[in-house]
Structures are given as C-alpha cells and as structure tokens.
Amino acid sequence: MALSDILNGGDWLIEETGFDPDKANFHETIFTVGNGYLGTRGTLEEGHRGELSGTYLAGVYDHNDSTVIDQVNAPDWLPLAVWVAGTRLDVQTCMVVEYRRALDLRQGVLYRTTLFEDSEGRRTRLESLRFASLADRHLCAIRLRIMAENHSSEVVVESALNGLRRNLDRLPVYTDHPSFHAEVKWQKWAKSRHMGEVDADISGGGIYLEMETLDTGHRLGYGARLATPVGAVRSRRRDYERVAESVTLQAGEGVPVTLDKTVAIFTSRDVAAGDLRTRCQQTAGQGFEDLLAANAEAWHAAWDACDVTVEGDSAATRAARFNIYHLLIAANPEDPRANIGAKSLSGEGYKGHVFWDTEIFMLPFYIYTQPETAKALLLYRYHTLDGARTNAKANGFAGAQYAWESADTGLETTPKWTADGKNRIWTGEEEIHVTADVAYGILTYVTATGDWDFMRDYGAEILFETSRFWASRLEHNAAEDRYELTRVIGPDEFHEHVDNNTFTNCMARWHLLETVAVYERLKAEGASEALPKQDEVAHWREMADAIHIPIDRKQHLIEQFSGYFAREDVPVTEWDENDMPRYPAGYDHFNMNDTMLVKQPDVIMLLYVLPDAFDDETKRANYAFYEPRTLHKSSLSPAIHAIMGIEVGDPAKALTYFNRSAFVDLADNQGNTQDGIHAASAGGTWQALVFGFGGFRVKDGRMTFKPWLPEGWSELAFKLHWRGKVLQVRVYRGSVEFMLAADAEMKEEILVFGQPETLTGGSAVSVPIPD
Amino acid sequence: MALSDILNGGDWLIEETGFDPDKANFHETIFTVGNGYLGTRGTLEEGHRGELSGTYLAGVYDHNDSTVIDQVNAPDWLPLAVWVAGTRLDVQTCMVVEYRRALDLRQGVLYRTTLFEDSEGRRTRLESLRFASLADRHLCAIRLRIMAENHSSEVVVESALNGLRRNLDRLPVYTDHPSFHAEVKWQKWAKSRHMGEVDADISGGGIYLEMETLDTGHRLGYGARLATPVGAVRSRRRDYERVAESVTLQAGEGVPVTLDKTVAIFTSRDVAAGDLRTRCQQTAGQGFEDLLAANAEAWHAAWDACDVTVEGDSAATRAARFNIYHLLIAANPEDPRANIGAKSLSGEGYKGHVFWDTEIFMLPFYIYTQPETAKALLLYRYHTLDGARTNAKANGFAGAQYAWESADTGLETTPKWTADGKNRIWTGEEEIHVTADVAYGILTYVTATGDWDFMRDYGAEILFETSRFWASRLEHNAAEDRYELTRVIGPDEFHEHVDNNTFTNCMARWHLLETVAVYERLKAEGASEALPKQDEVAHWREMADAIHIPIDRKQHLIEQFSGYFAREDVPVTEWDENDMPRYPAGYDHFNMNDTMLVKQPDVIMLLYVLPDAFDDETKRANYAFYEPRTLHKSSLSPAIHAIMGIEVGDPAKALTYFNRSAFVDLADNQGNTQDGIHAASAGGTWQALVFGFGGFRVKDGRMTFKPWLPEGWSELAFKLHWRGKVLQVRVYRGSVEFMLAADAEMKEEILVFGQPETLTGGSAVSVPIPD
Hints:
Helix content of chain A: 25-40%
Oligomer: homodimer
Distance between the termini of chain A: 52 Å
Strand content of chain A: 15-25%
Structural class of chain A: alpha+beta
C-alpha cells in the first residue's frame, strides 16, 4: 500500500507538482500543518537552500534584539534527512526526477513523494506523511518511506530537533544615516535570536531538547522518537542547541523501508517547567497509525461543523475549504491566552501580531461554527486587559485601549517605521477603532451564543474599561457642543491624521451605547459590586449622543472623515490581471493622503458591521460612491465588497471579489504569501460565502437571510451555530432550505427575505428565492 | 617628601576625613577626576563593597538591553590593589586607622592617604595621587606610595584593566503585573551589559585590553604600564574581559615604596580601530612626574580664564571653584560630537542624556570663559541634526525637533515611565521648548563671540530646520485667528498637557523672528543657495507675529499657561532645613497638576532668558507672584531665583538661593549626588555669581552690568570672554572695576548701571555702585 492511499480525493486536495525553487517559500506557507497550538510550515523534511522554515507556538513571543516583539521561530521538529551510500537526498545534491506534494484538507495531512537520482544513477523515492495532531495538540508525526528503485544500498536516516533558530527581522530603520544605531546593528549584530538551550538529553529511548526564550523565559520542550525496522543500527548525538538520532540500515532494491518520527511538544505555558522533560519523553513514541487515526477523527468532527460546499464550482469549494483549513489550524479552543496573528502560525509576516483582523474578519467564522474557539479568542482580550490599561495610560487616557498590534501582553507593539526606514507608521497611535472592534467581537459572540455568563464574568469588565477610554479620548468641541475624535486613522489607511472618521466615531458611539445596555441588564440582575457608578454611565450615554456623526440624511452620502469630499478625486484608469485597480500613475501607498482614493472599505465597512444603523438607500448611495474609489490594497477589502455588492443589489462583481478573496493565497495574488497566510482574508472568504451569497445577517438579535447565488452555482451549503443549536443551510437557485438537527429546538423565528419562519428539529423548511 | 606636598591650599581643596560607607558613593561623585574626554568616579583604587565605580567616555553610548540608551560604564582603569603578607589592604579586610582624601581643584588631582592595620597588627599606609590629564586627554595616572610602618613584609601589587562592567538599570517597568516582560526580564535577565572583549595583550611591556560596545560598535582600547622599583618580580595574566599585571616586592619597615600606573585610552571614535592597540601601548608608560607637571600647567591655564573668587566668603569661593571644576572636566573642546549629560561624566543618573541643561544652564559659562568648548557643544547639536529631523518626522512634523533627552544620535531617548513603572513621563513628547533652547544657545554664542562663521556654516541650518518644526507644530486657532501650542510641558514640569505655555510660546516666537533676522543677514551677504525660499521666511514671520502670548500689559502678570490662574492656590506652609519649601501635605511630584504650585521657574525663567522683552514692572510683578509658589524641586531653580531676585530689587533671599545652588552637591542637598554631579546647577551657580551678583546681561548686543554684593562679601572677581577679548571684572562694595588686557581693544561701550563706559587695554575703569 502506498502512503498516498490514505488521501481523500475530490475537492479536498491542494497539490504541488514539480519542485520550483522560486515558489518553494510560497508552498511552505500554504502547506503549513498545525492545530492552533502550533503551526509548522511546509518545508521539506530534509530542508533546502533558501527555505523559510518555521514552527510557531501560539502565545510564545520574545523581544530580545528584534525591532518589535516576535512570535518566536521555535525549535524545528521536522528534520529528517536520508543519505544513500553517503549521498544526501535533497534538491541541491540530487536530481529531482519526480516530485509531488498534496495537502489533504480533510484530515490535515501533508503528503510528499520525491524520486531522487544521485550522480551514480541511483534512484531512490522518498514518501512522507506529516501532520500536527488535532486530537492531541502536543503531538506531531512524520512517516517516511524510502524505496531504493534501482539499487541496494546502505541508508542513513537522521532525525533531529533543532533549536538553533532565528527570526527574520527586516531591519534596518534609518538606513539613510550612517550614525544611527540600527544601521550599525544591522551590519554587525543583525540577528533576532530568541532562545538559549537549557536542557538536552539523548540517554533515553529518544532525543530531548529544551530551549528557553530570552526575554519572556518560556521553556520549550521537544521530545522525539524514531521507530525503525528491526536491525537498524542507532546512534545519537547532542550538538549545541541541537540533538539528533541516526539509524543505519540496508535498503534492498524494490523493498520499501518505513520509519516513523513522533514528536511531543510542551512548554512552560502548559505544564510546570520541571515536568517538561518527563512529559515530552513519555508522550513521544506513540504508534503512528493510532495517531493518524485519532487525528483524522478529530478533523472529521471539525469539518462536520464548518464545511462549506459549492455545487457547480469545484474550485470555489476547494478554495473555501483551503481558507477554512487555515482558520482551523490557527486557533486553539484550549488556550484562552493566545490569539491569531495576521499571518496565523504559518509565517513571520507581522511577527505574529494580533490586529482587528481577529474580531472583524475571523471571529464570525469561529462564533458560528466553533463557539468554544471564539470564546478562547475573546478571553485573550480579557487576559490582555492590563496591557490595554497600560496603553491607555501611556497615551494619556483613562481605562483600557487595545493595541493596534497586540502580542502576548496586550501592550502596543506596532513598529514606528516601515522596514526601509523611510515612512513613519501611524497606525499604533491613530487607528484607535480597534478598541471598538474588540467590543464588537464580544457583543457579536454573546448575541450569537447567548453566553451571558461570558459577558458577566469577562466581557462587561472589558466594555466598562474600554468605555472609560473613549470617554477620555473623545474631545469636546465647545463651539459646536459636540464630541469629536481628531487625528485618527480609519480602516482606510491611505488617510492619516484625519478628524472625525465616521467609521471610528460611529463605532465609538455604538460601543458606549452597547456598554450602557449591558450595564442596565447587569444592574437589573442585581450585580452591583463591580459596576461603574450611575453618574459615569449617564455620562457615557450623554457623550455617545453628542458624538459628531456627519451623515447627510437627505443626500445619503457619508463623508469618510471631515474634509474628505474636498480631496482630489483621482480616477482609477487601469486594472490588473485580476481585475483589481492599479495605483494611478505617480501614486503609491504613501502619497494618497490628498486624494479620495481609498485603500479598503471604510464607509462601506461601517455599513456592513452595523447593518441596523443605515437604511437601504444610504447603503446603495455609498456603495455606488466608494466602490469605484477603492483600490483593494488590503486582502481585507474584496470579501467585504462581495458581501455589500450583493446587499445593495449590485452583485455584478460579487464573484470576482469573492474569488479575489478566496484565492489570495492559493494564487498568491498579493505576492507575499511566502510571509504567511492572509488569515483575515480567509475569514473574509467564509463571510463572503455565508453573509454574502448566503445572505445571513443578525438584526435585532435575530437570524435573517437573503441569499443570492451567482451564475453557475447550483447549491451553496453551510452550517451555523446559534445559541447551542446547529442550523444547516442549503441555498439552491430557486429556494433556500433550513434544517435543524432532529433533537434541536429553536423558539425564535428566523427572517427569510423579511418573512418570519419557524424551524422544527429534524424537518427541513424550504423558502422560495424571489427573482 | 610626602605625596601631599604637591597639594594647593586655601580655597582649592575639597576634603574627606574618615571612611564612611554610607557616604562613599557621594564621595565617589564629588571626587570625580576627568577632562571632558573621560570622567572617572572617585572610587578607591582597591575598590570596596557597595562601590559605584565608573569611567565614562564622552559620546560612548550603547543601548543593548537597557531600558533607554546608556552612557556606557566603560572599562575601569583604576584597579590597583595591595596585599601585605597575603592580606589585601581594603576597608573590608583591614581596620582603617587613618583616612583622608583631598581633591585639589587647582590641578585636578585627587590625593588619598589611608593607614590600614591587619589582624596581625601590621600597619601599612597607602597614599596615592590620581588624575586624568588635561594636557593630553588620553592619559591617566596614579602614583601609589606604600609604607610599612611597623613591619617588613612581602608586598604584592596588582594593577588591572577591567572590562567586566555593567550599567545600572533601574528597571522594572510595569511591576504590578506579573505577565509583563519587563518584570520577567528584571528577575531573570537583569543586566545592562554594553561591551564584549575583542582584543587583549599581555605580551609587551604592559597590559592591553580592548572592548567593543554591543550595539554601537565602538572599540575602546586601554593600555597600562606599571613602573616599579628595581627588583620587583613581575607577572601578568589575562582573564575574561580583564587583564592584570602583578609585582611582588619586599617592603622594609619605614621605607616607602612608590609605583606609578600610567594608562592610555583611545577609542575608535578618535583613531582607526586597527591602530588602537599600537596607540595605547605606545602612549602609556610616560613618566609620572612629566605627566603631572603638564597636567598642572593645563589646569593653570584653564583656571586663569574662569576662576571666580569671593573675598570675605571662603566657603563661597571654594564652592564656586568646585562647581567650575566640574564644568571644566565635563566638556572637551576637541570633540564636536559629544555633549554634557545632566550628570556630566560623574555618574549614571539620567544615563548620560543631554537636556536643555546644556544650552540654558551650562553654556553661558563656556561661552564667556571657554568659547572653543562652547562651540564644540553647539557643533554636537549640528551633528545630531539628522536625529532631530527624524524626531520631527516620527512625531508627524516637518524640519528638526531636538530631543528632550538626547544621546549620541539626537534621537529622542526620554524613558516613558518612571523607574517604578507607576507614572508616565511626558517630557519626551511635550517639553518641546528644548528646540528653542538650542537656538537660544546658538544666538547667545554668536552674539558673545562674534563667530559669524559658525552661524553661516552650522547655526543657520539648525535655525532653518528648527523653524520648519515650529511652523508645522504651531496650530492655527481659526476662531481667534492666532497660533497656539497645545498639550505641552513648560519648564515647570508639575504641569503636563497644558496649552499655550507662555515660556514655550514666547521662545517659539523669538526663535522664528531671530531666524528671520539671520536669514536677512545671510541674504544680504549674498548667500542664497542653501537659504529657504522667501515665501517660507515670510510665513515664519507671520506665524511668529500671530503666536498667542497671553500677557496682560496692564496687570503685568503673565499667566504661565492657559487656565493656570484657575488652578488651586495651595499655600506653602513648611520649609526644610535649607529654607526650601516642602511639598504641602498630601502632595508630591505627580499630583500637582491642579495647583498653582510650580516646580521650578517658568514665567521667571522667561523673564531671565529674554531680558529685553519685558519691562521692570512686569519682572517685579511676576517675581512677586511666582517666587512664593515655587517649590524648587529641581536643582535648576535656586540659581535663577538668586539672579532674578537681585534684578527685581528683592535680593533678600539671593544669598540663600545662591548657597542652595552652590552647595547642592557639596552638601548633597538633593540626596542624590551619588548618581552624579548636578551639572546644570554648577552652571547655574556660575550664572548666579556673574549674572546675579555680577549683574551682567547682554542687551541689544552690548555688555551691561548692575552688580550687587551681599553682606559680608568684600570683593567678587571674575573674567568674561567677549568677542576675542578678556574682560576682568572686580566688584567691590562701593564700586566695580573693569580691566581689559594691555594689548586688547574694545570699540563698543559697555553699560554700567545704564551709563556707557569705554574700556582701554591695560587700564582699569572704576564705576561707583549707587546705593
């Protein structure tokens, strides 16, 4: 039986054929395996020149001499190299006769097969299966199958654990002046080292390595075992920050040899530092077949809750699953102190920092398919509340201000300069809407799950503290007797230092009013101890009512910020091969401030996140105005345009926008997939399917649906968790069908095209779609 | 001949009698020897438990893992320890029978004598002379004399160079939350290491050690030789980051043994890194007597230009000289890329960072007595202009913004938190007047020296770039049609986030107008290439004229900032043993914002620095208002009050204020002299003597004098450099006498009590002092 026999077919496979060094780093990203506890890039087991390998452990950050704090490039558990008659099998040393890899999304397993030919004409095939277990997140495994195709030779296999890792640090800043330290640093001390060895052991039945992060003091323990055929001669060695185990065996022509490397990983974030070695050594070495079966079972359960399929568009199904796969391996419901970096655990872009991407783009997927994971992600915000308090204080404000870029403590970690040192980055100071976005995540979660315990125990404290931030950040304009927010950046980052960004002002207002409502409910329940004083809450309400929101109710046109309409209306005249706008001649990211061009939805974003707050005419008018002025220079942009285009009745580009979002990594549309997956776009893709084509919204606390299918799609199927129940939705061309599990009950009606429907467990309800 | 025979007497000696461990760190500061290239604290040669030893090399900074960039605690050249019959002579191991030290200010030499008795009753006297040469700033020397008083023993002397140094880093920040890195860092990785060894040599005629700073990459080379009596047995050893030379010799009872340690120090800031070893080895080992004589000669020349004496108050003379001594060893006319830290080169307080202290408090001393040094200090601002440009850009402004705390590059280096992590420090963001203070230093220097070349070559560029900063920082208040500066801190740091601090607004206005004048002169001279455009200059003038300066010309009272008069008028009710106000009950530095209490002169400072801009009535009214509300919680405060009290005709407290300033370190009035000399107070003390009692001012480009002597003073004598000439001033009780050197000419008249006087070289002019 070939190793590939276990692979699923159909729309579950992402494949690579032939080794292309120029695309190797891209494939490393998309072939990442993981489980939310860790992510390991799809580097070949034997490595190759130019690789960007990396294993990242959620929540393990370290600063040391990096420009900003890094998600640590943790010890590498992959190394598994083969020598045939003394020749190393790798793409540098041998000729690659045949090469194929396939990621099986259904069970999170990466398969590879490579036929190497050495200079003596010896052909040897390596096949492997690799996964990070979703059943037990501390376990990883590789099965390696070696086949000497035209020779019989001595084969040496080395399995290693390598702690000699470095993070990429795209220094220097201030390159244009030789006296600046960073320049010197770059030339002479360039390094982002984050670990030192504290323990290693090769005396037991395997190898063990323990590293410690330099600033943060996390202990990272790795134990590995190598199961080999009887008769293999084994040796072990301990080098500096690296341990390895080698076996020597005879490979007969045409006789496959199979070895299993199993690895256990624990850190002092999970278990006591003193127990790490024991835990790792005891856990490593379980049988590969059992691990594989348990992992497949866990994956099947996960997919059962979140699979989305498109009949009639196989590529769309595969892309949807690819994005969902990367969401599934990005978060861990068992870890309430970690969150998802902008590039998940699949690369070093944005250094593992957490943005609004989580709450606004990714969280809906988790809320409606994996609510326990959503809860863990929100608990991270609770556990970093002290960091947010420090941010507020550091900026001269009260309460708690969430960081635009957050790492392990919640402190602001946005770099101040672009990597070339030429442009100041202002988002850390000015993109303050993130604090409201966190509140938005909390409210959305509690509404969808009904988990009021979460609100009482954690959410309310966040809402109160963040409301205190807004109350101190809002500036009173005495002349107009209103509150304003000056010198901010909205979602559209082309425009810096703007006053009264409508998105930000509306979200701050909404945030304060929702907090008041939560306060009222808690007070009614009799909670009093930790509640704010009545006066303070009354003041929040007054301020909220007086926040300047410049919407012309007659024109229906919302000005993105004060003075936006006076900026130059530079037209877009060229589009790229993906039908996305190009920068007009003479423009780039850093000189857009004086134009009306928009990087990504800002007013349109507002219309999306607060669907109850604006009427249809307003949505239509603003979509018509802003859509042609949006350059989509963020992977967060297209999905929102797909959704809102459908909502306002202009779905012409919806499929284009959807594909742009769904394939941003598979097609490397932004050219930087090598830095890691666009996790927000993955979440946006799910939202485009469910909120766009599925037409799902929550309004007034009720589920509502207005689905619409693009041409060629015959069925769109997805599931939604809602207050403990699972609703299966199937959109057909002429109708939409809803079904609850047989034993489920749902008292509240849902609205389908504005009409209420009652759902009963086990029986499908079908509603026609109007033309 | 005893070593002490070379000491000067009279008012030139600062003495310590008896070793008091509690005051040891205080004495280390006040007994610092140096020459502006380096400063070495007065630690005993053999060290002692609890010492805070340190040698600091001007301009040698490094960041590495410190909270903010440090002036590096450089390799220590002092170590010279003695063992008698195997017992180490130091204050821990032996009984101290006799102990005296004396710093001879006249020649910058520190003398010590100590009689140790060991547990066997052996009495041994150590005497030493120590200096850092002012004649050749790369040379340091120690003569050690050992006298076995009641025994004959084998004596071992070890001379070392020690690179194993650490800076103090008063972390942690964020102490109240266990998950913050800094806390972890403090517990586990606390260190401020700034160097690593790159070379060492013990093969030649001495010992050599070369260290490299970690981030900044400066190479620091130290070579030392030890001259010993014939017959001493010599050995050398090289340890990790430390080299040493030992000699063993026989000391006969009553027969003194003399050894000379001579040290040469060069860095890659001075010479090519590859030449360091050769330069150090060649330079070390000159004869002690010659070095001592050359040093004394250089010191005599320095004192000739700047000595200030008070007849009738010996303590005042000694204190004046002590302060001047510390100014003389703080700056190096040969280094245009270094400046003076707030604690000079005498300690680690403020980490060697440069403040407005230089331009406003210290620079006048250098301008009027050592103009070449003043020029070097201002060139530092020129060489850090790129850093100032980066600051402006980092803060969103144009041009160049000088850092509130500046180190080697001019980048802002103010820490954001107090050492206990509890209070945010806002000066880095808000105390923006420092940019105008730099301009003030430049204009004052050029006016006093007539060095227009400096203005043309360096000063003008600074003025133009800093004016661009002000033009972008000034905020237009459309309602009032005026320019404002909001959210600033003035000199009075009790009040943060204030709007329209009058000191800052006036200085910005003055800065712009002076820049316009410099522009006009350069333009008239035909310089055009590097000049700003006419339009830009016209705009500066318009803005300057429209800056809001809230002075009520009728009331004569200046409001320190918008809304100051509405703050609570908390009275001072208690004074300390120095007659200085105490904080009112319930108040400390961090809760003064709502009161009218002032940390240090702010409005009064303005009246001092811009003497032409305000009439006498305004000065009187504001002194009367603000003086009782000033707590002098800065060592910069008393000197200014001494000066302005005399100016407004309220000199009752002038002597008290003067003494408070003059003795701040000698009496350790602030309790933190152990961290280093209050260099600004040293400069303020000189100003109190010359501008206060000497009544000197420059008005409309002319020297003016209105001297006043306190009771008990019969003569105050000082000298002033003025446009290449030296003016000797002697203030007597009834008259004041001016004398130019015989060959000097001075065309411009001076004003004495408002009357013009013409000075001729070689003949004294005496003017009576009105009652």
